[in-house]
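Q: How do we represent a protein-ligand complex in a form that can be generated token by token?
A: Start from the inputs.
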Amino acid sequence: MALIVQKYGGTSVGSPDRIKNVAKRVAKFHAQGHQVVVVVSAMSGETNRLLALAKDLASSPDPRELDMVVSTGEQVTIGLLAMALQAIGVPAKSYTGGQVKILTDDAYTKARILNIDDAALRRDLSDGKVVIVAGFQGVDADGNITTLGRGGSDTTGVALAAALCADECQIYTDVDGVYTTDPRIVPEARKLDVITFEEMLEMASLGSKVLQIRSVEFAGKYKVKLRVLSSFEENQGEGTLITVEENKSMEQPIISGIAFNRDEAKITVQGAPDQPGIAYQILGPVAEANIDVDMIIQNSGHDGLTDFSFTVARADLDKTVGVLDRVKAVVNAQAIETDKSLCKVSIIGVGMRSHPGVAAKMFRALSEEGININMISTSEIKISVVIEEKYLELAVRVLHEVFELDSAN
Ligand code: ASP
Ligand code: MG
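Then emit the structure tokens for the protein with magnesium ion bound:
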């Protein structure tokens, strides 16, 4: 007998029929004698609908009230799933985040989980019940409802698995695992049987939408055995296991996956004085405005001047330019230039630690296709390039081929 946490995403609970299917799968595990905790998202599209309602009433809604509204989507699905389970004879009980007492900080719309009270859940589990918990939500020390950021139900699932010392956390979604890259771009993309936490974290941060980044961080920190599976296949197979251990028994592939992100905008501060403190003078105010900066390049100076470029999410571009207009006057720069036609493509793999020449191979492949690289950034296990968005598909396809990702490793 095992304790399993299963998380079902919005498409998996998108209609009454789909909820019945989820109930059937949960019932199967329950009948095998396992203790099952189920975390659900809102029905697909529901969170967006609720956000739009709020935006209709207020251009920037009060975050506390916004969380009050958007957390309701999950309250619907937990109740419906409990009914669906009861209808097929499985004892089930639903809980909101506040009822469990998933304690978070008070950062509305992006709260962090601080503690989970598992007493009620354990009691129900030992009584033989299936426990259903609303994803994406918690409660702060003063009893206010909070939410964990978009995609936050993944984090609820992993956090519950950690708190309950579950044997496995299964994330059921509309794909049957984690792929080498998006199959809509490369039809030869292959499902990975295993991927390391580090790689998954890079994949999630660099644009793969399979798991919320925070859930992967959580799973790594608390060593939760995490698996991504399809909720649509009868025989869902093994999905993709996200492991702490590197795969030592087999030859480790150099590259495990390719991630991409269309959401890049580049800003260049031209002709800034090339002097100590200039990076801070430019990026300090940007950070104060709560804008996330991704890649940064400072070109070598000429005539005492330098060009300083960095990227931000496209949605933050106008705000960033607003900040920089003020900075420009202070540091006496010549001009601010922006470019929205860019994207980022990244290759990821723990295998690159022990293989030299990976970057050269990537750059060569891109140059042979005539793709110009605007910016480069690297870590121990990833190389990212910023290129023109019109070359995104081509770049991903070529890299997938060059690093032989379509052949089984
Ligand atoms: N319903 C929330 C969202 O759409 C949380 C989740 O689905 O994970 O972002
Ligand atoms: Mg999701």
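The longest strand covers residues 257-273. The pocket of aspartic acid (ligand 1) is lined by residues 9-10, 41-42, 47, 73, 135-136, 150-154 (CB under 6 Å).
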